[in-house]
Amino acid sequence: MSIPLISRLPPLPAVRDLLNLYRLQAVKQLSQNFLLDPKLTNKLVSAAGKITDGYVCEVGPGAGSLTRIILSRNVRQLIVVEKDKRFQPPLEMLAEASDNRMSVIWGDVLSHNLRNSFPQESSCDWNDVTPNIHIIGNLPFNIATPLIIKWLCAISERSDAWTHGRVRLTLTFQKEVAERMVAPIGTSERCRLSVMVQHLCHVQHKFTIPGRAFVPKPNVDVGVVHFTPLIVPKIKAPFSLVEKVARNTFSFRQKYCRRGLEMLFPTSMRAEQVQTLLRLADVDGTLRPFELSIEEFDRLCQAYSVILEKFPSLARYNSRSTDGIDDILFAEQL
């Protein structure tokens, strides 16, 4: 039998008043920008979908402006992960007012594993419906991209929070980063991140928040992005291999894709092996990287895997970390 949930918090001081009371100002080094407008915080939480009676992890709650909205949606349990202990007074106030539905984890989300943050009974089979588990956050700009890359890797491995099934995320990024994530083939925004996100998730740029809505005002607008992990990834290869192929391909984004793909191989074998790669993948080497479809990236990854079976040492090869001499020595070891 489900436990009855309260829908309202008791009267609390406004977040803006708490910031003034505790003299809490955004720290530039932590890329902090507070979103205080209740209409926008409501809209951001609504972008996550139905969270009623669900389990939520909020990343970087700060003074709790989003936190209050999440609690008001009748969630069963809310865990917040916050690095900055200056926010202890307002967050502890919310936790006390939440009727034991909220707990605070003090630490860096980049090194925190969410596997044990949700009860086992909330899990769903990966091939089944998505669980009523959500990750929501107004992310600091300086950790947003490294964090989503970390979580994409976890999605591909079904580890971390994704041991519980296809857990959805609703997160903020700089608008240009949000646009890159959803960028279709042939657009100027199409990049490595587009491929990494779209092959693992159904991704939506829900709406844009103008920079002026934040305190302090950043120099950019902010995109709210919603991710739903796919049952079957569109590229059937390990995360590190997909990332390596995509990174090298887009390293010369305005040139033919052949130019970037060459960087997967030492100088002495580039001409021959890139030709083999393109032939096995049935990909036109004169296409620009942003013109390649996810299906073509899939074939490139499969072809690269075939070449790695013949030359296993290539898995360790990184053209950026070798000079001319090391490049030759590496080729001699093959």
UniProtKB/TrEMBL annotation:
Pfam families on file: RrnaAD
Signal peptide: none
Location relative to the cell: Mitochondrion
Matching Gene3D superfamilies: Ribosomal RNA adenine dimethylase-like, domain 2, Vaccinia Virus protein VP39
Domain of life: Eukaryota
EC number: 2.1.1.-
Listed transmembrane segments: none
Family, as annotated: Belongs to the class I-like SAM-binding methyltransferase superfamily. rRNA adenine N(6)-methyltransferase family.
Protein name (database record): rRNA adenine N(6)-methyltransferase
